[in-house]
Amino acid sequence: MRHENRVVLVTGATGGIGSALVERYLREGARVGLVDLDDARGQAAVQDWRQQGHVVSFAAADVSQYAACAAAVEHIRAELGEIDTLVNNAGISPKHDGAPSPVQSMDALEWDRVVGVNLNSAFYLTRLLAPGMIARGFGRIVSMSSVAGKVAISNIVGAHYSATKAALIGFTRHAAAELGPHGITVNALAPGRISTPLLSTVADAANQAVIRETALRRLGKPSEVANVCAFLTSGEAAFVTGQVVDVAGGWLMT
Questions:
Q1: How confident is the model at residue 191 (pLDDT cuts 50, 70, 90)?
Q2: How far apart are CA 196 and CA 53, in angstroms?
Q3: Which residue of 26, 61, 105, 227 is 20 to 30 Å from 43, comparing CA positions?
Q4: Are 87 and 8 in contact, with CB atoms under 8 Å apart?
Q5: Which helix (H) or strand (E) element contains residue 247?
């Protein structure tokens, strides 16, 4: 029960990793606010968790929009109380016929959309929640980067995805330096290939190649990402900030 009496906000909360994050925090005693664009899945998840006796709230929001993020925060605060833990998990990686668009033909609107969801949302929510964390002298922030933010894997993801994941690393380190004096830790995770529905958007041959290149010779599980995230926001990691932790089974070791 490392997160008992804590209020955690998770974006992208109905996806593979997002669902695992929500489950982990609820199992550890937190009250959890789910934010996701998919209203139907979010409502269904909340109903299921409430039937199991957990305290949850859901806000449907397009996190690429500041006003939508602000409304989601206010809704979750009203239902659960002040938010002390933020997990910026929302992310998209568009594919076309199983492959990412190359730079020279990438649609500008697609670029803007990926930047909005993957990067801007992390800034928006940090901006919205940091003042309260500062006032209380405590906060935990984790953003979901990727090994693609460290090395080139252009056969799997597009330039927009890599750019946003690299930017999250820079944002994490800068925010950690700014917010550390106020008792707030800011870290990032860099997952490798994790077994989620997103895998189906990439050709199976590419996923099999990743497995061969991974030291542990398998894909990761969403729960394994959630395990590390929960550690970083727990009291056990109180002296860890500004770090980027690979959860990649030894794939593309950096």
A1: very high
A2: 26
A3: 227
A4: yes
A5: strand 244-247
**Beta bridge partner(s), residue 8:** 32, 85
pLDDT at 254: 66
Residues comprising the chain, all counted: 254
Other CB atoms within a 10 A radius of the CB of residue 62 amount to 17
Query: Vertex 225, ends 222 and 231: CA angle to 5°?
Result: 140
Two tokens at 172?
Answer: 């994490």
Per annotation, catalytic residue among 25, 66, 124, 161: 161
| 18, two tokens | 């997002």
Which whole number is the average pLDDT over 49-68?
Answer: 98
What SS3 string covers 29-95?
Answer: CCEEEEEECCHHHHHHHHHHHHHCCCCEEEEECCCCCHHHHHHHHHHHHHHHCCCCEEEECCCCCCC
161 in active site: yes
What is the rounded distance in angstroms from the CA atom of residue 244 to the CA atom of residue 169?
A: 7
CATH entry, 7-247, from 3.30.70.100, 3.30.870.10, 3.40.50.720, 3.40.50.360? 3.40.50.720
pTM to 2 decimal places: 0.95
The CA radius of gyration of the chain, in Å to the nearest whole number, is 17
Tell me if 30 sits within 8 A of 140, measured CB to CB: no
